[in-house]
């Protein structure tokens, strides 16, 4: 082969124009006499938003998409030699992979079926390398449906305790972002929290009518904890307000016990006695997203913290957590309740850890992280 020496005088690269295309047929190669019969064209696929090359030999249609230049390791160049002037031109070319279109896509075909047909063509008409690659690919394929059936049979007899699925917050990671305004300088326990920071007084008063009916004895369907509290506050001068708070706790619990598919529906009712309270609970204890209302764990913690403060207020700042836990419609562990109680400043009794008390002076706020971790952070600063 005769060799030439050359000096590159100029290089022009224009990626905005259509470059010469070298076609690689995935199912084999065309014979020389078949190349002359090929017609081709460039089109824009609106669904994929890509440039597509279509080829046809009169019987079979082939197509392929423009390769991404970012994934190309090298540039392919075509060499044109002018024998008269002796000059050589280097023109950048693109390598496109095309595959046969097995069926007119009037109805979008299942991708798995298309892959199977392409594999069949590769094994019948492809090169040795293509055949070997296709066989290796088929060996690695997994039948999703059979695996799904096996998994369903495996887990069908497994029982899961929902209590174990609740998010347990270690003490060192509990934050107080969901805590209402807390007066740590208060000299009277009644002044530590203002319940109207949890629910405005005007909204709580809309529950007074039902509260008075309950005090008259209309307590059908109420849980034991509810009726037990009624007996203790029956002679309380503020009993109407306290029953209204109890109804608020009950409605909040119903909201979190409701399945997510029902919670996303419009006109959800968790408090039949008051539309204002119903709206307040849903707006306060949920967040809006593109898929509808959501109730993340942080929002659930906020609701339980508010309910704990209201329950302590109703019962003169001493609360049996086990009875309170059983009243809640949503499942929660006793340990989680103890962790949340520490956030609001309540402390467990020495004789019975299940009973908590809110008293003056309040203990130190629960740290966000351990002191050990704090020291590590300081050393890294």
Q: What is the element layout, followed by pairings?
A:
Layout: E1 21-25, H1 32-35, E2 39-45, E3 50-56, E4 61-65, E5 76-81, E6 88-101, H2 111-125, H3 128-140, H4 144-155, H5 162-165, H6 201-204, H7 208-215, H8 224-233, H9 239-257, H10 260-263, H11 275-284, E7 287-289, E8 292-294, H12 297-314, E9 318-320, H13 321-327, H14 334-344, E10 347-348, E11 355-357, H15 371-380
Parallel strand pairs: 1-6
Antiparallel strand pairs: 2-3, 3-4, 4-6, 5-6, 7-8, 9-11, 10-11
Keywords: DNA-directed RNA polymerase, Nucleus, Transcription
GO molecular function, one term: DNA binding
Protein name: DNA-directed RNA polymerase I subunit RPA49
Share in helix: 25-40%
**Assembly of the depicted chains:** single chain
Radius of gyration, CA atoms, in whole angstroms: 36 Å
Report the principal-axis shape: elongated
Q: Kindly state the mean pLDDT as a whole number?
A: 78
User: Structural class per helix/strand content?
Assistant: alpha+beta
Tally of contiguous helical segments: 15
Distance between the termini: 68 Å
What is the beta-strand fraction? 15-25%
Number of strands: 11
Sketch the major β-sheet: 6 strands, mixed
Structure write-up:
- It holds the Pfam family RNA_pol_I_A49.
- Keywords: DNA-directed RNA polymerase, Nucleus, Transcription.
- Its main location: nucleus.
- Belongs to the eukaryotic RPA49/POLR1E RNA polymerase subunit family.
- There is one protein chain.
- By secondary structure, this protein is an alpha+beta fold.
- Among the domains are: 7-101, Immunoglobulin-like (Sandwich); 189-358, no CATH class.
- The protein is built from 15 helices and 11 strands.
- It has helices at 32-35, 111-125, 128-140, 144-155, 162-165, 201-204, 208-215, 224-233, 239-257, 260-263, 275-284, 297-314, 321-327, 334-344, 371-380; strands spanning 21-25, 39-45, 50-56, 61-65, 76-81, 88-101, 287-289, 292-294, 318-320, 347-348, 355-357.
- Strands 1, 2, 3, 4, 5 and 6 form a 6-stranded mixed sheet that branches.
- The longest helix is centred in the middle third of the chain and has 19 residues, at 239-257.
- It is elongated.
């Amino acid at each position: 082969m005769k060799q030439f020496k050359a000096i590159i005088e100029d290089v022009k690269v224009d990626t905005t124009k259509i470059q010469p295309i070298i076609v690689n047929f995935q199912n084999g190669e065309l014979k020389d006499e078949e190349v002359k019969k090929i017609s081709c064209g460039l089109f824009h696929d609106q669904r994929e938003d890509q440039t597509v090359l279509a080829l046809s030999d009169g019987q079979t249609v082939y197509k392929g998409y423009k390769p991404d230049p970012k994934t190309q390791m090298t540039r392919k160049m075509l060499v044109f030699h002018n024998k008269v002037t002796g000059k050589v031109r280097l023109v950048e070319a693109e390598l496109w992979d095309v595959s046969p279109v097995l069926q007119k896509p009037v109805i979008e075909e299942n991708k798995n079926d298309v892959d199977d047909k392409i594999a069949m063509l590769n094994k019948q008409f492809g090169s040795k390398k293509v055949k070997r690659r296709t066989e290796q690919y088929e060996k690695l394929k997994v039948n999703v449906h059979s695996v799904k059936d096996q998994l369903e049979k495996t887990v069908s007899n497994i029982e899961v305790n929902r209590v174990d699925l609740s998010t347990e917050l270690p003490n060192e990671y509990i934050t107080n972002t969901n805590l209402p305004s807390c007066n740590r300088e208060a000299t009277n326990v009644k002044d530590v929290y203002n319940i109207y920071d949890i629910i405005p007084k005007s909204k709580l008063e809309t529950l007074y009518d039902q509260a008075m009916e309950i005090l008259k004895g209309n307590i059908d369907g109420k849980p034991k904890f509810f009726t037990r509290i009624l007996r203790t506050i029956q002679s309380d001068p503020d009993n109407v307000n306290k029953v209204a708070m109890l109804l608020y706790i009950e409605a909040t619990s119903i909201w979190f016990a409701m399945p997510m598919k029902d919670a996303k529906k419009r006109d959800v009712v968790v408090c039949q006695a008051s539309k204002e309270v119903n709206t307040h609970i849903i707006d306060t204890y949920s967040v809006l997203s593109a898929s509808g209302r959501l109730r993340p764990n942080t929002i659930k913690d906020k609701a339980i913290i508010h309910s704990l403060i209201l329950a302590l207020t109703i019962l003169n700042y001493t609360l049996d957590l086990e009875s309170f836990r059983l009243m809640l419609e949503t499942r929660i562990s006793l340990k989680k309740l103890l962790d949340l109680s520490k956030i609001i400043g309540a402390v467990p009794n020495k004789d019975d850890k299940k009973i908590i008390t809110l008293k003056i002076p309040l203990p130190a706020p629960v740290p966000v992280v351990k002191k050990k971790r704090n020291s590590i952070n300081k050393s890294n600063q």
